[in-house]
Design goal:
The complex is a heterodimer of chains A (about 325) and B (about 325). Helix content of chain A is about 70%, strand content about 0%. Chain A is mainly alpha-helical and about 325 residues long. Chain A has one domain: MetI-like (MetI-like fold, Orthogonal Bundle). The longest helix of chain A is centred in the middle third of the chain and has 37 residues. Chain B is flat, with a radius of gyration of 24 Å. In chain B, helix 6 packs across helix 8, helix 10 packs antiparallel against helix 13 and helix 11 crosses helix 12. Chain B has 2 domains: about 70 residues, no CATH class; about 220 residues, MetI-like (MetI-like fold, Orthogonal Bundle), CATH 1.10.3720.10. Chain B has 14 helices and no strands. The longest helix of chain B is centred in the N-terminal third of the chain and has 36 residues. Classes of the chains: A mainly alpha (about 325), B mainly alpha (about 325). Chains A and B meet through helix 1, helix 7, helix 8, helix 12 and helix 14 of A and helix 1, helix 6, helix 7, helix 8 and helix 10 of B. Chain B: Keywords: Cell membrane, Membrane, Transmembrane, Transmembrane helix, Transport. Chain B: InterPro entries: BPD_transp_1_N (IPR045621), MetI-like (IPR000515), MetI-like_sf (IPR035906). Chain B: It is found in: Cell membrane.
């Protein structure tokens, strides 16, 4: 799938994060930060993401200010005489949906779901992917064959269909359980692409002199893995994780759009788009509000990921190498 | 060579077996009683027991597993819980629509991605290259279903108000083929065009930096000839590989496009089965698509090993 190839296209030199400090003795992190700050697009995307996060955190405040809880319907004020949703106005700032619920409030709760699922599943996938990748690459032999084949197999599964199959066979109805299942499913289908790249990096790091040095000093395998190899993967893992977040957000939105993601009545941008799709012709805001928020979020995370990659990899050039 | 093919073939069979076993396990740990789905909420205990016997659910698990694998070997995916029709028949009826959707979109994204990728690689750092980079970023950030909804809204709703009919819902294979398929194709291809532009651009830039490209230029060949004869040919190999894999995988991802545009394909079949709890259909489609993906991977691997001897030895 394209999402996996995207990840694989984002190779970063594993030693980039540990470039030797120069004149003023700045740490690699300070150097990366200095480069990152000059990237106007990346800084702008951080601002956008912070604004969306504030909007999400303040969800109960919006509900209180408008007097519209996220799951309450207001057929009298939200719908017109023909039962059609009313557009943006003083009472419904971003319009009402087909049941007369407040789009502003629901989209704020939806933002919580998107950010929560996107970040948690990306972090989970990166932890599992890193561990599996390091184990497969470093230990090698039968362990490598087993783990590499496992990752290949996961990548061969039609992820959307298997996710749907899981959600229907278990028929989960509670919001909490469906949230957990969604995060686990997304992480499960993301760790393999992650692990494959890490494995490749570890295979090349294993040949480096500093590993040989550590071994001749008597370091154990576990120590070499965690003390010598893992820190060299930090740049790569950071970049991959930040680029996995938008993919995970889209994955969640797609599942919820199809009705097998986070369960109702908890709103998600995906389920808002799914529920409203019958009345878009007359109620454009039901398409525009969650659609624009979703696009802004994924675009910002992608720009942020590109920015982090460029900052951590000084030799990469946005216009030629990189992508 | 033959050893390589046999090894890949065995591996493909093992993966298929593992996936079907996984599916069987899912079915068995599922907390939803099958006989309830079929019999409905008002069925008596006798009826429920009868249904269990008919489905062989009263047999030991290992016997059921054997029967399940035996049926799969005969390409029997079981019957729908809802209308009792064989799942293979249901899929067979819907498959042509999905295949048309996937192949049409495939042509658009392959041609579109390669053309824009080559253009931006040969004009690296120019204004049009910047423009392509922005397009790629937006393309990769747009969820396919949002793209589909926006296209439907703009071209179907707004233009038909203006008296222009760009899109017609309904079965595409009988009438208005182009009008029904063009928007779904674009919606499905949009993200992939972006992905393939990035892929082609990267591959082209790598190849154009090779020594033999400089040699070709140095011996006096035109820039155009070098780019297309020497560069594109080498750069296309990884792109074609990815294309084979994606084409197989995409059959599983058409659900959203088919739902939005009301196309009665395999994806729509899955979507309708979600609401009905018709597990055999969902499982059948999942197994079928896995089969497609694995076969596509296998063909790509074997094809690649003909082109590049290094693959056989790894």
């Amino acid at each position: 799938m394209s999402s996996y190839t995207d990840l694989e296209a984002q190779e970063v030199d594993p030693t980039a994060g540990t470039a030797p400090a120069r004149v003023q003795g700045r740490t690699p992190f300070q150097l990366a930060w200095a480069r990152f700050r000059r990237d106007r697009l990346a800084v702008a995307s951080i601002v956008v993401l912070v604004l969306i996060a504030i909007y999400a955190i303040l969800a109960p405040v919006w509900a209180h200010l408008t007097g519209h809880p996220y799951d309450a319907t207001f057929p009298k004020t939200g719908l017109d005489v023909n039962g059609q949703p009313r557009g943006p106005s003083g009472t419904f700032w971003l319009g009402a949906d087909q049941l007369g619920r407040d789009v502003l409030v629901r989209a704020a709760y939806g933002a919580r779901i998107s950010l929560l699922v996107g970040i948690l599943s990306a972090v989970l996938a990166s932890i599992v992917g890193t561990l599996v990748g390091v184990l497969a690459g470093f230990v090698g032999g039968a362990m490598d064959t087993l783990l590499a084949r496992l990752m290949d197999m996961t990548l061969a599964l039609p992820y959307l269909l298997v996710a749907i199959m899981l959600a229907t066979t278990f028929q989960i109805s509670s919001v909490g359980a469906s949230l957990t299942l969604t995060i686990l499913v997304i992480a499960f289908f993301s760790f393999a692409a992650f692990g494959r790249i890490i494995r490749g990096q570890v295979l090349s790091l294993k040949q480096k002199e500093f590993v040989e040095a550590a071994r001749s000093l008597g370091s154990s395998n576990a120590r070499i893995m965690f003390v010598d190899i893992l820190p060299n993967l930090v740049a790569q893992v950071t970049v991959l994780t930040s680029l996995l977040i938008p993919t995970s957000i889209v994955f969640e939105a797609t599942l919820s759009f199809l009705g097998v993601g986070v369960r109702l009545p908890m709103p998600s941008w995906g389920s808002m788009l799914g529920e409203g799709s019958d009345v878009f012709q007359t109620a454009w805001w039901l398409l525009a509000v969650p659609g624009v928020l979703l696009l802004l979020t994924t675009l910002s995370f992608n720009l942020l990921g590109d920015g982090i990659r460029d900052a951590l990899d000084p030799r990469g050039d946005r216009a030629t190498g990189g992508k | 060579m033959i050893r390589f093919v046999i090894r890949r073939l065995l591996y493909a069979i093992v993966v298929l077996w593992l996936v079907s076993t996984l599916v069987f396990v899912f079915l068995h740990v599922s907390p939803v009683p099958v006989e309830r789905v079929i019999g409905g909420p008002r069925a008596t205990t006798d009826t429920l027991n009868q249904i269990r016997r008919n489905l062989g659910l009263d047999q030991p698990v290992i016997v059921q597993y054997g029967q399940f694998l035996g049926r799969l070997l005969h390409a029997n995916l079981g019957d729908s819980y809802i209308n009792g029709e064989p799942v293979t028949t249901l899929i067979g009826d819907r498959l042509p629509t999905t295949l048309w959707l996937v192949f049409g979109a495939g042509i658009i994204w392959f041609v579109g991605g390669v053309v824009t990728g080559v253009l931006s690689a040969t004009r690296a750092r120019s204004l049009s290259d910047r423009f392509v980079t922005v397009f790629v970023l937006i393309g990769l950030s747009t969820p396919p279903f949002v793209m589909a909804l926006v296209l439907l809204y703009l071209f179907s709703t707004k233009l038909s108000e203006a008296g222009i009919y760009f899109f017609e819902a309904g079965p595409p294979l009988q009438m208005h083929f182009w009008r029904r398929m063009i928007l779904p194709w674009i919606a499905l291809a949009f993200l992939m065009v972006a992905a393939y532009t990035r892929l082609t651009r990267g591959a082209m830039l790598d190849v154009l930096g090779e020594d033999y490209v400089r040699t070709a230029r140095a011996k006096g060949l035109s820039r155009r000839r070098v780019v297309y004869r020497h560069g594109l040919r080498a750069a296309l190999t990884p792109v074609v590989t990815q294309f084979g894999i994606d084409l197989g995988a995409l059959i599983g991802s058409t659900i959203v496009t088919e739902k939005v545009f009301g196309l009665q394909g395999v994806g729509q079949l899955v979507y309708q089965s979600i609401a009905l709890g018709d597990t055999p259909v969902i499982i059948g489609v999942t197994l079928m698509v896995t089969f497609f993906v694995i076969v596509a991977n296998l063909l790509v691997d074997i094809g690649y090993s003909f082109l590049d001897p290094r693959v056989r030895l790894s």
